[in-house]
């Protein structure tokens, strides 16, 4: 989960108000008031029901997407709104409104509140995404549900069948239903961006700044570079033969020297729904392994690739490069929401290996 690049997050929401057919005048008036409040409207996101259980982490993902669209005043509820397993969705908005009224009566701030459910299984992927919004009085503002028959679902949850794709759908539909226009970049380094950066273990800004001159140096001297290529990470294990093929591809593409390193240098990367955490776990593993691998191969740079293979083909390709001392040069991710990976559409591991080299070439231009 939670692997969408921020460049995708800031471009996802519709700018147009979307007619929804006949509507209760009181509900329409409440929606109009939310529209008039604009993106600064305070909104509390309640733990999202995923696989039948409330998830504060997925609520944080919704917060991240909405924050990237320009909403500055977002929060996640501290307690979950519980729904009976056999309950009807038609009854949920009113029940949620009663839950919010009780919270306000107990002293909670009178904000707008959002509750969502993502239906489906790991085997089927998302089958339905539905959510409702109530105001501070607990009165319904809007109710929405989307399935694979809907275009917005196919653009988001259908293309990225994990909770982040579903969260992008919630944001798109909220903006479309209310009639807001996204303001990418309006919230700089917001609460949820900081939270996800901490959860991913991404380094501080100065570490990213230090990577730029190292990448420039490699760009200038790529033909003379000497790469040690670690066993490729192909969850749940590794593929040493993939590293051998990558080494050959690197030498062919750049005219450099590249040598696959034996399996003892393989990096362990735990599965994680936060793709950024997986990426930086890979990078930290490479940093730790780089000095020994570089010495064994007589190399000045060390490279590793992490490939996600699923039922729909290649879901992501991560490429990391360190110097022999373990300093980051490239830590790059491409998933099925990035235009370059979408265009390449790799289906099998060989395709992903070629894509990894293409991606490195693009970064070295």
What this model shows, in words?
- By secondary structure, the chain is an alpha/beta fold.
- The radius of gyration is 23 Å and the shape is elongated.
- The chain is built from 12 helices and 14 strands.
- It folds into 2 domains: 6-199, Maf protein, CATH 3.90.950; 203-363, Rossmann fold, CATH 3.40.50.
- Helix 3 (56-68) crosses helix 7 (191-200).
- The strands form 2 sheets. Strands 1, 2, 3, 4, 5, 6 and 7 form a 7-stranded mixed beta sheet that branches.
Average pLDDT number: 90
Shape descriptor: elongated
Which range does the strand content fall in? 15-25%
The number of domains is 2
The biggest sheet amounts to: 7 strands, mixed
Order of helices and strands: HHEEEHEHEEEHHHHEEEHEHEEEHH
Top-tier CATH class of the largest domain: Alpha Beta
- CATH third-level topology of the largest domain: Maf protein
Number of helices: 12
By helix and strand content, what is the structural category?
alpha/beta
How far apart are the termini?
Answer: 31 Å
Main attributes?
14 strands; alpha/beta; 365 residues; 41% helix; Maf protein; Rossmann fold; disordered N terminus
Summarize the structure.
By secondary structure, the protein is an alpha/beta fold.
Write the layout of secondary structure elements.
Layout: H1 6-9, H2 25-37, E1 43-45, E2 48-50, E3 53-55, H3 56-68, E4 74-76, H4 92-105, E5 112-121, E6 125-134, E7 140-146, H5 151-155, H6 163-178, H7 191-200, H8 205-220, E8 226-229, E9 232-234, E10 237-239, H9 240-254, E11 257-260, H10 275-297, E12 301-310, E13 313-323, E14 328-335, H11 339-344, H12 349-363
Parallel strand pairs: 1-4, 1-5, 2-5, 8-11, 8-12, 9-12
Antiparallel strand pairs: 2-3, 5-6, 6-7, 9-10, 12-13, 13-14
């Amino acid at each position: 989960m939670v692997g969408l690049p921020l460049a995708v997050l800031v471009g996802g929401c519709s700018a147009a108000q979307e007619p929804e057919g006949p509507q209760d005048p009181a509900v329409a008036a409440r929606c109009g008031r939310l529209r008039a409040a604009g993106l600064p409207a305070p909104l509390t996101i309640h733990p999202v029901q995923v696989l039948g259980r409330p998830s504060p982490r997925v609520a944080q993902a919704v917060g991240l997407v909405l924050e990237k669209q320009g909403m500055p005043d977002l929060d996640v509820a501290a307690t979950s709104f519980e729904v009976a397993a056999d309950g009807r969705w038609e009854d949920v908005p009113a029940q949620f409104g009663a839950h919010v009224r009780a919270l306000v009566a107990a002293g909670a701030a009178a904000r707008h509140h959002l509750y969502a459910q993502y239906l489906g299984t790991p085997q089927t992927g998302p089958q339905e995404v539905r959510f409702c919004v109530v105001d501070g009085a607990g009165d319904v503002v809007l109710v929405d549900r989307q399935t694979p028959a809907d275009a917005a679902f196919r653009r988001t949850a259908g293309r990225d069948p994990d909770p982040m794709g579903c969260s992008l759908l919630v944001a798109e539909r909220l903006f479309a239903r209310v009639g807001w226009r996204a303001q990418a970049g309006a919230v700089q380094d917001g609460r949820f961006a900081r939270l996800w950066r901490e959860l991913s273990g991404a380094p501080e800004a100065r570490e990213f700044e230090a990577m730029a001159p190292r990448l420039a140096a490699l760009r200038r001297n790529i033909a003379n570079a000497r790469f040690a290529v670690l066993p490729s990470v192909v969850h749940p294990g590794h593929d040493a033969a993939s590293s051998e093929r990558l080494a050959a591809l690197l030498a062919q593409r750049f005219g450099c020297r590249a040598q696959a390193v034996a399996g003892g240098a393989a990096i362990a990367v735990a599965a994680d729904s936060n793709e950024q955490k997986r990426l930086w776990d890979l990078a930290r593993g490479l940093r730790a392994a780089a000095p020994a691998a570089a010495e064994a191969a007589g190399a000045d740079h060390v490279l590793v690739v992490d490939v996600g293979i699923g039922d729909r083909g290649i879901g992501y390709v991560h490429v990391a490069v360190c110097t022999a001392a373990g300093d980051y040069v490239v830590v790059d991710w491409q998933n099925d929401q990035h235009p370059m990976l979408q265009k390449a559409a790799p289906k099998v591991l060989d395709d992903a290996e070629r894509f990894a080299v293409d991606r490195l070439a693009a970064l070295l231009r």
